Amino acid sequence: GESVGLHLPTLSVQEGDNSIINCAYSNSASDYFIWYKQESGKGPQFIIDIRSNMDKRQGQRVTVLLNKTVKHLSLQIAATQPGDSAVYFCAEQYGNKLVFGAGTILRVKS
Amino acid sequence: GAGVSQTPSNKVTEKGKYVELRCDPISGHTALYWYRQSLGQGPEFLIYFQGTGAADDSGLPNDRFFAVRPEGSVSTLKIQRTERGDSAVYLCASSASPGHPTDEQFFGPGTRLTVL
User: Chains A and B: how many Cβ contacts under 8 Å?
Assistant: First the structure.
């Protein structure tokens, strides 16, 4: 079936540390994955994406890793800042729709 | 505006009433999506429009939910005989190149619907 899930519902990190948010997916046929950030009262905001023919992709302060063998996705945020505090979702492109996981709350302590 | 806009931002209604939620996509975007997000959950797909037609309405939970996009731009999500379980944030997204596997969906801020 199509489902995307997250291991940790809440992650607290110290400002300046690196953050790692994990996600497991179940549809081995999926070939496109996206990480979204959602702040309170706002819609999800695109962070970074990755195709299944890649295992790593880097953006500005963010890196996404894809392990197709164990169907695992992770988002790494370097030098986490207070502005990174939000809920993070991984999503899987399934046809024309996105299938989202439940989300991880990232709290950055100053 | 530059982004997707949704009105109203908040809607409180009574059980059994009819509501309409509006979405203004990014100008020029031909694809429009509706999602529903319950508290503590990720968004769940409801319906996808390509132009004026609903290309995929497989996520609509039942026949009380209906959406239109008569001119291929603004869309309205309509909910009849609202139930308390319909309470959620309704998100709209639009994209420029439907069907492209890496086409980005841009989300609006959502409408928070509360059914009393």
Answer: 59
